[in-house]
């Protein structure tokens, strides 16, 4: 099933069920720990230099055979390839190598965003006398076995013994292995958004998503955060029940935010505007990047030209334009290469768009699917539909070129340099973004300008509910009458407040303390109710 699966944990979850193991063929592997990285060097990036040294030593001192090197990402890989290439050029193969049959080194990078034709080069046998060196991300640990060559680390070592005996060099020390490397990777459910998971459970009539027996239970605060986000996009109501919109959303293989925007467009009869955007946002690595400075500048100029074709002020429109231009091209592969766009990503988007179109067509046939009319321009309509799904990703300009998010956290963010709007910040008041990238600053990516009036009625929904109220636990502790009175008070309160007053409450945080406080309030309310019943008896 998986080379990295925690078998004991899975067996225990299913009542200590028996385990059937099928061993794979593997040749002997000699493993060696190097003392180049220890526990104190955990955050040190010098390991790339050490990796290059070991690679060269292996090339010079080992018999013929290929080398597979693991690094963490595209930038590291391309820089390592450049350094290794220049060092390999200086080798005198008449005197410097242990094996006289080795006459050269073929260096090949491998990472997920590479064009397919370049990735295929790693499978081609090298010329006679040439040693192949593949420098890869973990794509080579899980997806391929290249001829010649604690869970993740063990799996990577296994690559060295698939087709013949091999050696595995670990640049870290044995102490680092014991103290700094966990036995297994953190489960995905504990490190990604739970909105789709929680909505799926709700649609399966699993109401108590907090006490549900997960294989790897996520923290309660993350479940409550997912409930809050689902309420914000109206996928669930105030007591946590799935709405019609929530059942429409679950039909799409998209995040709830993106599905909500697409449903809004379908309701307005303009789904053709959103379908290409939704498809392009669902795939990775649309734009080709390079770790080589000059190449990257050329790529960025190509990307800038693409954005200028649609006005240069809307990254979502740029994605839609790429989709349409590539689709209408006589030679889409050549078009992508010319504009520094990944053909494989756009090709996947074509498939996703067709799937989404079929779903929207099916939903429009339902009697309870809402249909609306509009009288606005396509440019405005696209952004309004995006606001329907991504109003939690809205930010207002703050000081200088920075913006302040309106999600209650009040985070200071900056437009990412890859955006068409980078450099235009002083001309913007409100923006909507698709994703966040945290480096030395917090950057927002895929951005477009919006108007406050498009989101002013939606923003208060980010702050008018305690996340704990949406859980089934809370629902057990209050009566319908109490809930109705509470909703009435809340509605009166909202109607009496101006929209600007609502914005002032945006600093409120839905953190661990607020969740704990909410729990205490409900338990106190329940205790009072029980005391009243006892007094009446």
Using brief descriptors, characterize the structure shown.
globular, 537 residues, Helicase C-terminal domain-containing protein, 22 helices, 4 domains, Four Helix Bundle (Hemerythrin (Met), subunit A), 12% strand, 10 strands, Rossmann fold, alpha/beta
Q: What would you note in describing this structure?
A:
GO terms for molecular function: 3'-5' RNA helicase activity; RNA binding. Residues 485-518 are annotated as: Disordered. InterPro entries: DEAD-box_helicase_OB_fold, Helicase-assoc_dom, Helicase_C-like, P-loop_NTPase. The chain is an alpha/beta fold and 537 residues long. The protein has 4 domains: 28-180, 3-Layer(aba) Sandwich (Rossmann fold), CATH 3.40.50.300; 195-385, Four Helix Bundle (Hemerythrin (Met), subunit A); 392-456; 460-536, no CATH class. Helices cover 45% and strands 12% of the residues. It contains 22 helices and 10 strands. The strands form 3 sheets. Strands 6-7-8-10-9 form a 5-stranded mixed β-barrel. β3, α4 and β4 form a beta-alpha-beta unit. α8 (195-203) packs across α9. The termini are far apart. The model is unreliable at 149-153 (pLDDT under 50).
Q: What proportion of the residues is helical, as a percent range?
A: 40-55%
Structural class: alpha/beta
User: What's the total helix number?
Assistant: 22
- Would you tell me which CATH topology of the largest domain applies? Four Helix Bundle (Hemerythrin (Met), subunit A)
**Residue-averaged pLDDT:** 84
Assembly level: single chain
What is the tally of beta strands?
A: 10
Biggest sheet: strands side by side, in what order? 6-7-8-10-9
The level-1 CATH class of the largest domain:
Mainly Alpha
Give the tally of structural domains: 4
| Architecture per CATH nomenclature, i.e. the level-2 architecture of the largest domain | Up-down Bundle
Q: DSSP strand (E) fraction?
A: 5-15%
- Major sheet details: 5 strands, mixed, barrel
Report the C-alpha radius of gyration, rounded.
28 Å
End-to-end Cα distance: 60 Å
Low-confidence stretches: 149-153
Estimate the global geometry from the Cα principal axes.
globular
